[in-house]
Write a structure and sequence with these properties.
Layout (H helix, E strand, L loop, with lengths): L1 H24 L1 E2 H4 E3 L5 E10 L10 H13 L14 E10 L8 E8 L10 E8 L5 E8 L5 E4 L7 E4 L4 E10 L12 E6 L4 H14 L4 E3 L4 E5 L8 H10 L1 E2 L6 E5 L4 E4 L8 E5 L2 E12 L11 E12 L3 E5 L5 H10 L4 H14 L5 E4 L1
Parallel strand pairs: 15-21
Antiparallel strand pairs: 1-14, 2-11, 3-4, 3-6, 4-5, 5-10, 6-7, 7-10, 8-9, 11-13, 12-13, 15-16, 17-20, 18-19
Helix pairs in contact: 1-6
Length: about 375
């Protein structure tokens, strides 16, 4: 067990070393920031999926009315009471449309069931308009679903059901056609704005410095998120070429000391700037075992009263393994932290508890985020 933990910590230390080397080389501006105005927009629509082989909705009113409306588009007037929706499901269709998407471009769409359909497997989305927040149609979706899952078996008492992933949610790659471009403005009065994806004052200042080193006195950091850049006069007629060169500049963003712990999955992610002050750590395991059993209590022989009863007996035991108190010197790097914790033979979940205790004691000088 300790050997496996040791190997795991060596791998973790190697990853941190590679991450530190990559950070020292710097990142392109296009990887850590975006141009204000060049943003995605969300689209959504309400439609029908057909061809579900009996796994569709169980005749809810909204499904039947939607099916009636669809048939009316094709010149058929059929009473809703005469229709069956077992092969049809009402769905919501969502998509993200990027900036500058032109008519004829294709988008990926996500289709999710709104009713009580068992599965969308094998279904086909009927032509569905996708609306923006302003109520205008910007794309139209249609195509065969890929759900990446399955559901099989008979539900109910005595039945067995097997399900993989979510069979009521599917995707259609390139399933929507853009019909209308969303206007976007990225240059205002010969200025553009760089927006950091991870706001940080130091990173914004470094970005402005890197831009000014290439284009003298053209960039100003406005806050932790925004850097305003003035397009030089000699680039006024070719702003796209200027942006291309701007995005290629390298900046070393400042990464705060941070430990992210996900207790549900047992995952620990830590940045390379963790600092732990002098402290002592005790590591030990406590095991509590509780076992319940049922006994039968009967009245004594030839007794005139009493009845047979079932009683519950509970046995509890506590086992504590031998612990140890280990003094940790001041550890300025995450590699040394990993090495010191590895010497204790701790598991990832033990390490979570230790990081939490160090934070409470004031020894862990980093932001601790629990998920």
């Amino acid at each position: 067990m300790r050997r496996a933990v040791y190997i795991q910590m060596l791998i973790l230390g190697a990853w941190f070393a590679l991450a530190a080397a990559a950070a020292a080389a710097g990142s392109r501006i296009k990887d850590i920031a975006m141009i204000a105005g060049a943003r995605d927009n969300q689209l959504s629509g309400f439609g029908l999926v057909t061809g579900l082989a009996g796994d569709g909705d169980l005749n809810p009113v909204d499904t039947l009315q939607t099916l009636v409306n669809l048939l009316q588009r094709y010149g058929l007037t059929v009473p809703a009471s005469t229709l069956s929706a077992k092969n049809v499901a009402v769905v919501m269709v969502t998509a993200d449309i990027p900036a500058f998407a032109k008519p004829g471009s294709r988008l990926d769409i996500v289709v999710s069931s709104m009713g009580d359909a068992k599965s969308l497997q094998g279904g086909v989305l009927i032509q569905t308009p996708l609306y923006g927040a302003d109520g205008s149609v910007y794309a139209v979706g249609q195509g065969t679903l890929s759900i990446g899952g399955l559901s099989a078996g008979a539900a109910g008492a005595g039945g067995a059901t097997v399900q993989k992933n979510h069979p009521t949610v599917g995707t259609i790659i390139n399933g929507a056609l853009v019909e209308k471009e969303i206007p976007a403005t990225i240059v205002n009065d010969h200025h553009l704005e760089l927006v950091l994806r991870d706001p940080d004052f130091t990173s914004a200042a470094r970005m402005a410095t890197a831009v000014n080193a290439k284009f003298t006195d053209s960039a100003t950091a406005l806050d932790a998120t925004s850097v305003q850049v003035q397009i030089p006069a000699n680039w006024g007629g070719s702003s796209i070429d200027f942006i291309a060169q701007l995005e290629a500049l390298e900046v070393t963003p400042d990464v705060p000391a941070r430990v992210v712990i996900n207790e549900r999955t047992g995952t620990i992610v830590a940045t390379a700037r963790i600092h732990i002050a002098n402290c002592a750590v005790s590591h030990g395991n406590v095991t509590i075992s509780i076992a319940s059993s049922q006994d039968v209590s009967q009245p004594t022989a030839f007794s005139q009263g009493g009845s047979t009863a079932v009683t519950t007996r509970t046995d509890a035991s506590i086992k504590e393994d031998k612990g140890s108190m280990v003094a940790l010197p001041e550890l300025p790097t995450v590699e040394k932290v990993a090495s010191a914790l590895n010497s204790l033979g701790v598991t990832p979940r033990d390490m979570m508890s230790m990081f939490e205790a160090m934070k409470q004691a004031g020894a862990l000088q980093a932001e601790l985020i629990l998920r």
